[in-house]
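Retry 2 of 3 after timeout on previous attempt. Resubmitting structure tokens to design endpoint.
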């Protein structure tokens, strides 16, 4: 066994068992390095405000004996410079991109259309197809592409794997995925419901089955992924059969800044009567609507504080948010026919007990109830919050999209990756 100072030991001819997960945004890069033998995290971090004078990288070593959080500030010009800075920080911990233990880099890609229903090793043809989908994901796919291209330049010999947010939802039947518009027009412009947050929905629905002590194929689950972006899914026997987001992440639930479901004619009205441009309407519905449009806040903690102080705007925003949740719970109960569990996840879903309580209140006829004491418990573990007598389990299952991306990446390439120390 050989050891380099500051590095974890590597045994000759051992398999490469680590995966670096990259989530590249328009001006940020989130990353985690995971050891796939046990799913542990070795390091995590965030580069934000890329391209600005006030760029910031926060790096947190997580493996035992590697020290504490480090931060650097100052201009990071572009994503290439950002990933080079990440590589430098990892190298300081003996975990650099040149490590023989690194099996692959897994990339979150928001939109994969219908072509990509599984994690995919990236080549030039795959890059071209992701680029072709930019018109249906203009805010996300370009940044995802930049991250992939930069990582390929840094490690051209290493498998780069794209894991798509839309992939889990490709199992939706046509009657759920199709919009009721002219078929020729829809097909010509790839207009259909794709869904998003699929990595989270896949992970949480599978973990829910584990919580119930059953195989995913035996369980019907409604998953509520409630963060600043929010979506619901109906999962039947481990396969998505419906989801709330559509062609874009705008459709569905009320979100932090997005309107969710809305009469399409509102856009015509705003153009004709208010004289707004298409870009202005787009910004209104995606960035100035939802909770922030209703009450000026998109942080559920602040909204609940205002509700408790008697703020009527905050109370109305909360009620609209909950009303939409109830509608989707009821609709997906009808779609599934039998529901074994209703599950809350993501930032709001995992931490906002009042949201969970209000969403289930009045749905006793569907077999749903929340135990007040269980609901207020804070934990980072999957847990049941319904009373023992409830017909349908209500649960909180923390999501872990990075672990799911790493798991899917390693499942694709791990068996073939071995290293010489």
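Retry 2 succeeded. Sequence:
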């Amino acid at each position: 066994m050989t050891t380099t100072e500051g590095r974890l030991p590597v045994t000759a001819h051992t398999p490469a068992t680590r995966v670096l997960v990259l989530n590249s945004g328009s001006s940020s890069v989130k990353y985690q390095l995971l050891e796939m033998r046990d799913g542990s995290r070795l390091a995590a971090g965030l580069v934000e405000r890329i391209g600005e004078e006030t760029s910031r990288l926060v790096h947190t070593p997580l493996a035992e004996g590697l020290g504490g959080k480090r931060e650097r500030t100052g201009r990071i010009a572009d994503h290439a410079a950002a990933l080079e800075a990440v590589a430098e920080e990892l190298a300081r911990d003996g975990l650099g991109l040149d490590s023989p233990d690194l099996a692959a880099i897994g990339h979150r890609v928001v939109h994969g259309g219908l072509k990509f229903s599984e994690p995919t090793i990236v080549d030039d043809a795959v890059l071209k197809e992701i680029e072709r989908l930019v018109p249906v994901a203009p805010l996300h796919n370009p940044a995802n592409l930049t991250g992939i291209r930069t990582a390929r330049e840094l490690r051209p010999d290493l498998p780069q794997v794209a894991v798509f947010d839309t992939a889990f939802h490709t199992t939706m039947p046509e009657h759920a995925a199709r919009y009721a518009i002219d078929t020729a027009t829809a097909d010509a412009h790839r207009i259909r419901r794709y869904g998003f947050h699929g990595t989270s929905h896949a992970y949480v629905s599978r973990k829910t089955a584990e919580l119930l002590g059953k195989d995913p194929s035996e369980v019907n689950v409604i998953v509520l992924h409630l963060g600043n972006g929010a979506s619901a899914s109906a999962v039947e026997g481990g396969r998505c059969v419906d989801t709330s987001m559509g062609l874009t992440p705008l459709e569905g639930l009320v979100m932090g800044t997005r309107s969710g479901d809305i009469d399409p004619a509102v856009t015509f009205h705003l153009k004709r009567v208010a004289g707004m441009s298409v870009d202005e309407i787009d910004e209104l519905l995606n960035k100035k609507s939802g909770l922030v449009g209703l009450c000026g806040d998109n942080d559920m903690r602040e909204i609940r504080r205002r509700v408790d102080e008697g703020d009527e705007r905050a109370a109305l925003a909360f009620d609209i948010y909950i009303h939409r949740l109830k509608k989707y719970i009821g609709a997906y109960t009808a779609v599934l026919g039998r529901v074994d569990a209703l599950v809350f996840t993501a930032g709001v879903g995992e931490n906002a007990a009042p949201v969970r309580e209000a969403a289930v209140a009045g749905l006793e006829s569907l077999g749903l109830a929340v135990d007040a004491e269980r609901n207020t418990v804070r934990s980072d573990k999957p847990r049941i919050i319904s009373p023992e007598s409830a017909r349908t389990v209500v649960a909180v299952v923390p999501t872990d999209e990075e672990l799911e991306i790493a798991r899917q990446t390693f499942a694709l390439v791990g068996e073939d990756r071995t290293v010489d120390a």
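Attempt log closed. The chain has a mean pLDDT of 91.
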